[in-house]
Design brief:
Blueprint: H1 5-10, H2 12-31, H3 42-59, H4 67-78, H5 87-97, H6 102-118, H7 125-144, H8 148-169, E1 190-192, E2 198-200, H9 201-209, E3 228-229, H10 231-243, H11 252-263, H12 266-279, H13 284-300, H14 302-310, H15 313-320, H16 326-339, H17 343-351, H18 354-364, H19 367-380, H20 384-391, H21 396-405, H22 408-421, H23 425-433, H24 436-444, H25 452-462, H26 466-474, H27 478-487, H28 490-503, H29 508-516, H30 520-529, H31 532-551, H32 563-569
Antiparallel strand pairs: 1-2, 1-3
Helix pairs in contact: 2-3, 4-5, 5-7, 6-7, 11-14, 12-13, 13-14, 13-16, 15-16, 16-19, 18-19, 19-22, 21-22, 21-24, 22-25, 24-25, 25-28, 27-28, 27-30, 28-31, 30-31
Length: 580
Amino acid sequence: MSSNSVAKVLEREQIMSKFQEVTSQLEQALSGIYYEKLDISDEVKEQVELVLSQFRRAKGRIETPDVELHEDLFSLYSKCNDAVVDHAVLRRLVDKLQLTELDDLKQESLALHEMVTATDGDPEERIEKMSMLLKKIKDFVLTENPNIDSSAREKSSTSCGQASADESQKAPVIPDDFRCPISLELMRDPVIVSTGQTYERSCIEKWLEDGHSTCPKTQQALTSKALTPNYVLRSLIAQWCEANGIEPPKRPGSSRPNKSASACTPAERSKIENLLRKLKSGSPEEERSAAGEIRLLAKRNADNRVAIAEAGAIPLLVHLLSTPDSRTQEHAVTALLNLSICEHNKGNIITSGAVPGIVHVLKKGSMEARENAAATLFSLSVIDENKVTIGSSGAIPPLVALLSEGTQRGKKDAATALFNLCIYQGNKGKAIRSGVVPTLMRLLTEPQGGMVDEALAILAILSSHPEGKAAIGAAEAVPVLVDVISSGSPRNKENAAAVLVHLCSGDQHHLVEAQQLGLMGPLMDLVQNGTERGRRKATQLLERLNRYAEQQKSPQAQAEPQIHHQLSRSPPISTNTIDS
């Protein structure tokens, strides 16, 4: 039990009353938020609503107290100092309050001292009584175990010497969280993959180079091969190493030169340097040939990506993005795409001024070059600050164009880049004004349905933006969204419901339209069988439908049919089913 457990038990009623009061105030404050007037993301709204539901549950829930503990403690608290105390009562108190060691009692005394300090040095009667109660408990503990005091002193005096002896006999046990799940060794450069798991960089890079596309620990498919440094864990590991006399992990930046030097043979380094000379030659044929070879080398493995970047290839490749030779341009942008897989290279590509050149290729290059330019922008946008740079460079309109007119692969590349860029609030308006919503709606209704997943994911992000909500509403999206909630995949149902939540927020027209299309049945099914987020969204929609039904009960609406009767009687209206 935490410090000052004695005081907490005795003042249980006051503490519970204060907790209920604060909980009620917070619940009222959160309930009064008008989301429609705030330009906040869907994710933030979800978090607020989740916290609000927790407060509502806490408000109506009263913890069952330990009556026996309270009565025992209060009887002891009320007795005079010299009164006889029942040892059975003391035994129950010691066990339930976990005050079996001197350290536990010391913590209680310190907490009691803090209470005295809080009264400006003038202890109230209740604090004096608590002090006497604590002394009785301490006397009982020492009586029951007379060796505890001396053993505690011995433990304190010998702890330093004992620790030294133990350290000399065995190495410290590495915490499991500090071990790489692949090698089971202490991590030196921990990185996070798209599933949220952390691995040693060299181990996961080897895993990916071997052709795997799943997370080794969870077996989930990796949505991206990007590796994000886990700085928090690296700091914790460094602190643990210093505390245990182990050499702390070196920063990746300081070890990279040694890595490239040891990984590449002199012959390989010579080959890379020769290719760079060709890139500088000014000969279109040599530039094309060298860019193509660097493209292949960068695709092969992580060591090559590090070595090529350190040799100075990135600025030379950036220069070739503006070449009139379409094949050279394609090689250059694809080489940058392959180099960007290495986390450290992403920053070098951005600082080399590559984004305007990549956007130029996205607008003017061959179809394959445009596809790879979009994929490069996605890779670079994994780093949050790059989302701002890319969005302000004019990349979004050509990405929307590729989403509309590209090959299936090109559409996929454009969609993943747009999704990532629109995570940043400032890019949402740019995408909406570039006409992305009509394009996404067209993809949703394509007969082959190959882009439904991506289109709904982007719409779910854009719907939290006022312009996005207006554009989606104007595109007559409600019938399509209802159809997806009826027959789509679990993830698509979730995203369609998220879009509808925003459309129906403060807009009864869309709410009535969705109800008339038979939304209630699919929503009830989604509440029962959907994903966690899907269930939350369905619940929000049901609450809005119920509120609307209550409004229809007003005197002005008595002549109108009650919406809850309509909901129970109206069969779902099926439009063209989207196979997702």
